[in-house]
User: What shape does this take?
Amino acid sequence: MKYSKVVCIGRNYAEHAKELNNPVPSEPLLFIKPADTLVPFEDPIAVGGHSCDVHYELEIAVLIGKKLKNADAVDASTAIDAVGLALDLTLRDLQNQLKAQGHPWEKAKSFDASCPVSAFIPNDNLDLTDLHLALTINGELRQSGHSSQMLTPIVELLQYASRFFTLNPGDVVLTGTPAGVGVLNPGDQLNASLANKQGQLLTVSTVVQA
Ligand code: ZN
Assistant: This one.
């Protein structure tokens, strides 16, 4: 399937909102990365081209398989074709500067190659409230979260997003990052995993270009 736009949610885990001194939002905070931002997860990440810190945010990604507009819960849950992992790469210094000026975040969030995405695993009746994601960098656990901690669960998130943006087959939705975000440094080795009660669903790795 050819991927299309990426719809993202900000601050969907309370602990992450707090670590960046952001208020916990009362409604989902949405933004979009264009299709150009999607690159294979395993491609080495280049951080040298930006004057600002590149931060990692590991997120559960869902792949949309059918058109959703003003979707109800049944439509939204049956539209999830597959599940994977993505990095919502963020130029954090620039984002802070844009936020302070009241400007849109696009340059900080939607630059080229800002969305490394893994292969997707088919959604064969996966329990979307039982997904554990984890990221280690150089062998050290940096992020660990569970979909049950999401402020807006995945199905509700798709319903909400589809009120504003028609979701089409090939669209990818990123579902927010747990606490533990931080800066990427040249040479870092990243290992990410997705698991449920039955065991490991997916592991994927990448490196930051030296
Ligand atoms: Zn994010």
Remarks:
- The CA atoms of residues 53 and 92 lie 6 Å apart.
- The domain at 6-130+146-184 is CATH 3.90.850.10 (Fumarylacetoacetate hydrolase; domain 2).
